[in-house]
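F.,

This is the one I mentioned.
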């Protein structure tokens, strides 16, 4: 399986979607990523995020796990069924500490990048660019 990380360099422009119920966080990400010329979209609704991911091609999907009505876990379960090739593009950004079963669930799906909020956008981009091809 090819890692999403092996395809990017600092010069690449990425199409990124951020799915998080806190609009303020997306606004910060949007401002910084726009300065770096990345194409950025966001939604505060997980279901709308799913529709966008199914319709569009993103290089990166930044996902919060704990959202009302349709959680990040719901999003991942549906994505695995409807567009499994996109799972490898997901980076989890959540303020909650995951328990062992949640961590195991994410690992089995192929998610190997989980970050706790708050995270700086620059640190996140540096992680994406410099992450080894072989996973964690």
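My design for it:
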């Amino acid at each position: 399986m090819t890692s999403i990380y092996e395809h990017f360099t600092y010069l690449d422009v990425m199409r990124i979607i951020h799915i998080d119920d806190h609009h303020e966080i997306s606004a910060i990400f949007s401002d910084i990523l726009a300065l770096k010329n990345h194409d950025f979209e966001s939604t505060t609704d997980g279901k709308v995020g799913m529709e966008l991911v199914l319709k569009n091609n993103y290089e990166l999907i930044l996902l919060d796990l704990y959202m009302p009505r349709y959680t990040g876990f719901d999003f991942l379960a549906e994505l695995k069924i409807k567009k499994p090739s996109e799972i490898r593009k997901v980076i989890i950004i959540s303020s909650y500490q995951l328990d062992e079963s949640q961590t195991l669930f994410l690992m089995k799906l192929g998610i190997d990048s989980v970050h706790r909020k708050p995270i700086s956008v620059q640190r996140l981009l540096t992680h994406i660019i410099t992450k080894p091809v072989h996973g964690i």
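The longest helix spans residues 23-35.

Talk soon.
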